[in-house]
Amino acid sequence: MSTDSNIPVKYAYKGANLISFGTSIKLLFTGYLVTIGAGYLMALTQILFTHGMADGKFGLSLDDIVYSYYGDRSGSVLESKLNGSMKMNAPDQERFKIIQWVRDGADEAKYNADIKPIIEKNCVICHNANAGSLPDFGKFENLKKLAESSEGATFASLTRLSHIHLFGISFIFMFVGLIFSFSTGVPCKYKYPAIVMPYLFLLVDIASWWLTKLNPHFAWLVIIAGAGLGISFAFMWTVSMYQMWILGGVLKQSDRRNAVLRD
């Protein structure tokens, strides 16, 4: 039976934790955390350029959330896009001309005479028959449909996004939480909630999309859930990197605790 006296001196004060792991494990964990951190920043940037432009102004606001999920039912989908995320894709004069055409009833004869050349010049490069999920603006019927009142995200799109986020983000936080669980010295009152919070806030976040679709007053819940996800991610990421490379690297600390078997 092995005892502490049988353990080589260089490993005598090292346990299964972030501080005392070997360099290969630290590099493995760090590569994952850095990549996921970059992905998280890209996701936030993408949100700013999509949902964050829903009200026509850069930056995420409560109105952006309402317009994205509940819709701007005082105007059309096409108008909200031209004033929001698609604002930079056409000159103001041509954009205003399309908006006025929408407000005048989206007449097909006027479309063929004045609007079609603008669409072909600025929009069809992306909105064509080969665009996949984007509507084909080469057909008047598709454009006409978007000239109707904006009701936000459809139930079909919410279903698709919900299952993608539930599967994808839960896997991300499983591995981030697994790495963080090897941390030591973090009080249980902080460690336990940090590991559980992402899953709770993810469920709240997905539920808030559906609630906001039904009632715009739930839009604030989307922001709270997103903030909760961000805070828990930042906390686990920072603690993990600090223990691996500051405490266990620069300061050369060792720790005999087994973070898996006991807190």
Q: Which regions have little confidence, pLDDT < 50, spanning 5+ residues? A: none
Largest sheet: none
How many beta strands in the DSSP annotation? Answer: 0
Structural class: mainly alpha
The rough form would be described as elongated
- Rounded to the nearest angstrom, the radius of gyration is 26 Å
Instruction: Report how far apart the termini are.
Output: 25 Å
The mean pLDDT is: 88
Element-level helix/strand string: HHHHHHHHH
How much helix is in the residues? Answer: 55-70%
Q: Into which percentage range does the β-strand content fall?
A: under 5%
Q: Treating each run of at least 4 consecutive H or I residues as one helix, how many helices?
A: 9
Explain what you see:
The structure is a single chain. With 263 residues, the protein is mainly alpha-helical. The protein contains nine helices and no strands. The protein has helices spanning 23-49, 62-69, 77-82, 92-103, 108-122, 140-146, 155-180, 188-214, 219-250. α7 runs parallel beside α9 (219-250). The longest helix has 32 residues, at 219-250. It is elongated and about 90 Å long. 26% of the residues are buried.
